[in-house]
Amino acid sequence: MCLQSFPIISAIGHETDFTIADFVADLRAPTPSAAAEMVVTRKDEFRTQIDRMQERLRNGASMRIHSEQARVRSLEQRPGLAAWPTRLALTGRRVVDLSHGLSRTTRRFVGRGQRRYHELRLRLEGRDLRRAVGRITTRLTFSKGRLAREITRHISERREPLVALAGRLENLSPLGVLGRGYAVCWNGDRTEIVSDASSVEKGDAVHITLHRGELGCKVVTTKRPSTSTEIRTSTE
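Request: output the structure for the sequence above.
Response:
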C-alpha cells in the first residue's frame, strides 16, 4: 500500500477500530464517505494548476509580443531610417501577422487542453471514484505535461521569425555602419548629406555624425575627386 501511486481508501466502519492499514495511512477520516471526499478534492487542485499555466502562457506571450513591437517602434524612430518607409511598413505588417499567428496558435492549443480537461472531468464524475481516480489522475498529469511541451515548442517556433526580423531591422540602421568606424558628413544647416567634395567650399561649416556624438567642423581645403576633404574641428 505504501508503494502505490493511486489513492487507496480503507475502512472498517468504526473510527475507534484499527487495522494494519492505519499504520501506513497518510490521512485518517471518520467515515468512508469523508475519505472519498478528501480524494475528490484533488480534482480542484488539477483545475487550479491548469488555470495557472494558462495565465502564465498568456502573460508570457503578451509580454514577448509587446517587447518585440516596442523594439520595432524604437528602430523606426532612429535618425537615418527615413529612406526606408516602404521596407519598414512591410516588415511591420510581417511582425503583426506573426503576432496574430502566435496568438491564434496559443489559443488553439490552450483550447485543446481545456477540452481535454473537461472530457477527463466528465469521465471522472461518471465513474466509480474508488476504481477510476488513480487512472484519471495519471492520464491528466500526462496530458498536462504534453500540453506544456506543445505550447513551449510552438512559442519557440514563432519566436525565431520575430528575432530574425528584429535583426534585419538592426542591420538596416545607419547607426550600425557608424559603429564600424564610419561617419556621416552634413552640410551647415543639416539639410543634406555631403558625399562629394565639390558640393562644399573652403570656409563652409559642416557637421560630422559619429557613432558616439557629433563634431562641428570647418572646411579648410578640398581635394577632388578621390582624395579626402581636410577638416578642422571647432570648439563647439
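The chain is about 55% helix and 10% strand.
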